Each structure stands twice: as C-alpha cells, then as structure tokens.
Amino acid sequence: MSFPATRLRRLRRTDALRGMVRETRLSAADLIQPLFVRAGSGPATPIPSLSEQYHHSIETLVEEARAVHAAGVPAVILFGIPDHKDEAASSAYDEEGIVQLGLRAIRLAVPELVLITDVCLCQYTSHGHCGVLRDGDVDNDLTLELLAQTAVSHAAAGADIVAPSDMMDGRVAAIRAALDADGLTSTAILAYSAKFASSFYGPFREAAHSTPSEGDRRGYQMDPANANEALREVLLDIGEGADMVMVKPAMPYLDVIRRVREATLAPIAAYQVSGEYAMLTAAARDGLLDERAAALEALTAIKRAGADMIITYHASRAAGWLS
C-alpha cells in the first residue's frame, strides 16, 4: 500500500519503537581492541598519532588487558615493538620476544580474554617490509618459513588466534601446516585476506615503527580498485585453512565486506584502521562532530555491511557507550 496508509515514520516515533525494529545491533561482543606492547618497563607512553592509545610495557599491558575485559570486550590483538630489528626479523619468532612475553603475562592474569596476535615481519625487519628482501623485492616463499615460525611461537606462548597480515601468497597453508606439526591444532587462523595498500595506515605505521625505509607495499598488498580480487584472496585463504577472514580497511571498503559476506559463511572481521580512527578523533577534537555518535554510527555501518567482528581502537570506549 502507498501513502497515506503506509507511514514508515510511525515506527521511528520513540526510542523504544526504534529499538524494537532495529535491524543491525552492535554490541561489545563484536569488538576487538588493538594493543601495542614494547620492550622495557615503566609507564605506558601515549602514541602521538593515535589519540588515547599507548605503547605499553608488559606491566601496563596487563593492566590494560584487565580493563578491556572488564569493559566487556572479549578479545585483544597484540602488536609488538621490539628493541632489536634485523634483516631476518629474528625478534618476531624469538620465544622471549615482546609479543610472546606479553601473551604469557596476559594469559596468566586474564585467562578469559581471547588473545589474537598480528603475524607479520614489518615491525621486526630493519627495512620495514613484511618479508625477507632479495634484490630489493620481498621473497615470498622464504618469508613463509619465518611467518610460520612466528605463528608457532605465538601459539605456544598462549595465542588463541594468529592473524597473518603480510599478504604473502600461501601463508595460511604454511602456518596451518606448521601449527599442526607442533600439535597446536586448536589455534585458529584469522587471515588478513583482503588487505588493501591503503593510505589510511599512516598513523599505525608511526605507532608500530614499521614504515618501509624505501619503496612501498603495493607489490604485495591489494590494489584499492579491485573487489573481485578480494574475493579470490578470501576464497584461497579459506581453502588453505583459514578459520576466519578479514577485510582491511573497513569504512572505505564496505562494499567488499558485503561481497565477502555473500560469498562465504566463514566469520568475517573488519579492521577500522588507524586513519579511520584518527579522522574521527581529530574531527571530534575540533568540535566538528560528536565522537561517541560518529564512532558508533561507523561501527554499526561496518557490522551492517556484514562483519561479524570489528577491530577498532574505539573498542573499550565503545563498549562503555553501548552498556
């Protein structure tokens, strides 16, 4: 029927009515909080490029993990800032590396928290690329061996989920084989399957000290113009044994999230990356928008597009806003 018999505004009249017919529901259970852990002791230090985010020592990492869990956020993803870098990224798979130490400390203090680790070499290589360089290019197959070692060391230290973000071909299969060979068959893989070579990573690269010393990552991360290729990446990773897949960034790629949702029943994560977060916080700081309202609207849009879980620097605060 048409107007005036059908009036869609009838169900928008009050908060209660709007809540009853709401199609997409965002909750703290959908969120994952990124945390940065550095070598050394002492208080947490603010990250200039990411408002209200910090480089944590092991001690303050544990305190923050407790706070995240208390806020109702079920999971964190850890990024390490090592005190040593070399061409072989040896700190990435060191059993006493900074992420491995952080995992053990959180696992002991907050056993209920789901622990995810970023598996990549960029923070640990002296040149800042995501793999081993040969003649100025990343050697895909040699890098797979080091990524697998890194994933195994994370799982052995207590990671529930390892999340390879390097975008090397075949890395999911290599990691799954290495985990299974070490008896770590229960460790899940969240593949950064559709990771685009995005301009929105700038604040993170400053936070993680991972900017390449020369060149860029367009030779292995995806062209932002390609959506069909994203589906190919996702389906290849699932075929190699990925338990979950990811689209990164989130807001500029809502169409990709939707297409991935239509192509697979696997759980989908989306990463609301540092540039997305920084734009919201900067606009709020300048009084141009309400940070709470804008952040929740953005997160709801990501979930509406089809994401089951969202990695966001707003996670802990958003959980409070939603409670």
List the helices and strands and how they pair.
Layout: H1 15-20, E1 31-38, E2 45-47, E3 50-56, H2 58-70, E4 75-81, H3 98-109, E5 114-119, E6 133-134, E7 137-138, H4 140-157, E8 161-164, H5 171-181, E9 188-195, H6 202-208, H7 228-240, E10 244-248, H8 254-263, E11 268-272, H9 274-285, H10 291-305, E12 309-312, H11 315-322
Helix pairs in contact: 2-3, 3-4, 4-5, 7-8
Short overview:
This protein is an alpha/beta fold and 323 residues long. It has 11 helices and 12 strands.
Q: Please outline the major beta sheet.
A: 8 strands, parallel, barrel
Order of helices and strands: HEEEHEHEEEHEHEHHEHEHHEH
Per CATH, the superfamily is: Aldolase class I
Approximately how much beta-strand content do the residues carry? 15-25%
Instruction: Give the N-to-C terminal Cα separation.
Output: 39 Å
Number of strands: 12
Indicate the CATH class. Answer: Alpha Beta
| CATH fold description | TIM Barrel
Mean pLDDT: 94
Which stretches are low in confidence, meaning pLDDT under 50 for 5 or more residues running?
A: none
Number of domains: 1
**CATH architecture label:** Alpha-Beta Barrel
Computed Rg: 20 Å
Strand order of the largest sheet: 1-4-5-8-9-10-11-12
> How helical, in percent, are the residues?
25-40%
The computed structural class is alpha/beta
Shape category:
globular
- Tally the helices: what do you get? 11
